[in-house]
Structures are given as C-alpha cells and as structure tokens.
Amino acid sequence: MTILETKELRKIYGAGENAVHALDGVTFTVEKGEFAAVVGTSGSGKSTLLHMLGGLDRPTSGTVTVDGRELFSLKDEELTIFRRRKIGFVFQSFNLVPVLNVEENIVLPVELDGREPDYEYIGRIVETLGLAEKLRSLPNNLSGGQQQRVAIARALAAKPAILLADEPTGNLDSRTSQDVMGLLKVTGQKFGQTIVMITHNEELSQMADRVIRIEDGRIVSGGETGGAAK
Questions:
Q1: Is there a contact between 153 and 183 (Cβ–Cβ < 8 Å)?
Q2: How buried is 168 (Cβ within 10 angstroms: 0-12 exposed, 13-18 middle, 19+ buried)?
Q3: What is the DSSP string of 8-58?
Q4: What CATH number does residue 127 fall under?
Q5: In a domain, 3, yes or no
Q6: What is the pLDDT of residues 165-194, one digit of tens each?
Q7: What pTM does this model have?
Q8: DSSP 40
Q9: How many domains does the chain fold into?
C-alpha cells in the first residue's frame, strides 16, 4: 500500500535568470512500513523536499499525497490538523520543552490535539527506546542520544501515517548515531511505521530499506519511477 506519493514536485525560488530550481520534477512513492533514506549533498534539495513532504512549505507545482490526502488541496487550518495527526517529525535539534519531563514531552503533541494519549502504546515505544527509567527526568539531565530518543518517541506517540526525520543524528557522535539509527529502524519495524529520513551520511543511509538519491533537485536513483529527470 502506497502511503506517500509525490508527482512532478517543483519548488522555484526567484524568477527569470535568477530562478533557483530547488526541486525540479520530483516523483516517487513510499510504501506503508518502508524505511526510505533520501540522500544528497548540501544544496541538492533534500531539505526542501522534506518540507514539502511534511506540508511545512507549499510547492510551486506538483502534488504530495499522504495516506490518501493531497496535502496542498487542504486549506491552511485543515493542513495544520492533518499534519499534527498524520505526520511525525524528528529533527537534528531535539526541540524538547526544557521544563517538561520525558513523559510530558512525549505526550504533549497528543494532548495539544485534544486527544487522550494511548499510554499502553506509548509504554511499548518507551520500552523499545530504552527510556523507561528516564520518564521523570528533565531534558537537560539526558545525553544527546537520550534526548533524540525522546524526540522519536514523541513523534511516534500520535501514531502518524509517516515519520519524517531530518538529519536525526546530525548533533550526535558516530557511535550514538549508530545506536539511534538502530533504534529508529527497530521501532519502525516493531510498530509498522513508515519512515523517510533525510541525510547526507552514506553509511547511515545503508540502514534503510531503500536509498533515494537526489541531485540538483532531481531524483537520480531509488525512486520507483526512476525519478523525474527527463
């Protein structure tokens, strides 16, 4: 089952001779439960692509469909609600609330959405990520790797259709990066979670089920249709 699909996605900044084609006709699909890594150098368009996949920015043209809904056909308020319920985000900056403990940080997005957290499900996530002994700890008492695990748990707590990770190990040392990546992969498999990870790290990308390469705003390999570089 296809959970994510982009068609001829374009993002152009500026106009005329000064136009920059950050995305230039990106087309690919991701299946439910798949762990896909989007790899590219700085300036290749990978971060712009993640912002489009998450509905954080609107494309110049093209479509992004998540769990059967075309994101940019939604009005701003509808898109905000859909994004909160269907798309989880993990960034290299952990974005934890410093005055809330680990458990409070994890359940915060669900509670802000006016829903009751599924504590049994969250408990399984916490156990898988090795955070059970840290639930009462504040973020500044945790290591970087532990904080990133909390960020992953928070993203999964709302049971999103897809989890988007933007350089999730960018602020971690190599050993901790491997640990976090391993946990991300295991968690995804255990909970049937679809994950799209943006990274420039070739070694870490090999842990994914599929590597999608992007250069100059175009998919050059790993896209189901071979990308849109025509």
A1: no
A2: buried
A3: EEEEEES-GGG-EEEEEEEEEEEETT-EEEEE--TTSSHHHHHHHHTTSS-
A4: 3.40.50.300
A5: no
A6: 999 888 888 888 888 889 899 989 999 999
A7: 0.89
A8: -
A9: 1
